[in-house]
Amino acid sequence: MPQSSPDGDVHPTEDASVPAATPLTAPREGVPPLATSAADVAEVARRLAGGTGPVAVDTERASGYRYSGRAYLVQLRRAGAGSALIDPTEAGPLDALAQVLNPLEWVLHSADQDLPCLAEIGLHPAALFDTELAGRVLNQGKVNLAAMVEREFGLLLAKQHGAADWSRRPLPADWLNYAALDVELLVEMRDSLSRQLHAQGKAEWARQEFEHVRTAPPPAPRPDRWRKTSGLHRVGGRRRLAAVRSLWTARDTLAESLDRAPGRVLPDSAIIEAALADPGTTHELRALAVFGGPRQRKRSALWLDALAEARGLPDSALPPKRPAGGIPPAGRWPAARPEAADRLAAARGAVAAIAEANDLPAENVLEPRVLRELCWGDGTGSAGVGAAADVSPESSEHIDALLHAAGAREWQCALTAEALAAAFRGHARA
């Protein structure tokens, strides 16, 4: 069982013969009151300022229900200050909280999911510890929060409300209890994982990973997002692809205006069926599944206009069957560029060996995207990354430059550049 110290903190057990995990049902000090006003936030900030050490941070969003990725709840916990729950939709500006939180180290689980919505409300960490990333660098296998809490502390963390509609008001009491538990043990987990990282000589690797996440710029909008429509493989011909694009765009515009998840405005399956059937009248449209329902009947004109727009496009404006540019899926490389497929196979072998030697997941030794970018070109950086022109394409210096340009961290470059260069030299001789 996890051991409790006199101060009430929970520490990982050292006993290898622990009994079945114990459910974690409530925070140690109970569920904190929900801060919904400027005065409430000022009190939370005052308490947190009196605490010590890093602060555990989490958010709850409503991505399956809302178009936006905003935070509908912020959970915090710091030693000596206890836990806090803040409703950022009601509390107004969080300047007082930012003054306390922003200079601190934050502990988050899967920080890249939470940092964007926290930045929207003025919260930015000065330093970061990501427990999920730490678990990956430690090669722990399952690194979801519940699995890690059970492994580290022998406690079961319920996850039944993770996909709930957190934009709902008022928030139910059991949801608030669940949310507070998400930060209950994050700082203790940070301390345990930090000790393990140092023991394995991986602390600096993890630090670079944390900093990479902390300083990452907002992701650029993906081009041709409509191509992610589920079932698109069923649509043949550029005119029908144009119909999918037009319906997707109409849906996206409406979803954003309603702040509703696009799939709740119109499911992908309905977009595909309409593109295939290409109805030209209200009667034909409403004969299709979904479009005959009461909500969609009111929007018939919107969907028919989108289909008519696609129908009227000149051939020159139709989308290509496949996206222009970019790197194709690796499965198509043997036919499209066999030498690149051979390079990728050699590179994957080298990375797998490095992963095994260093007890790391291969995808954390080097991101698959980086490896594909490195191998798709001709070895001189033509895949979209560059290197010094006076360096041999098969030298470790050249590979190191390519890796840095593709976003690999220093520790990853140091581990892989020479091995990849050797793999490419071996491939070239074969």
From TrEMBL:
Residues 1-32, 208-230 are annotated as: Disordered. Pfam families: DNA_pol_A_exo1 (PF01612), DNA_pol_A_exoN (PF18305), HRDC (PF00570). Residues 237-317 form the HRDC domain. Transmembrane segments: none annotated. One of its GO terms (molecular function) is nucleotide binding. This is Ribonuclease D. CDD domains: RNaseD_exo. One of its GO terms (biological process) is nucleobase-containing compound metabolic process. It comes from Tomitella fengzijianii.
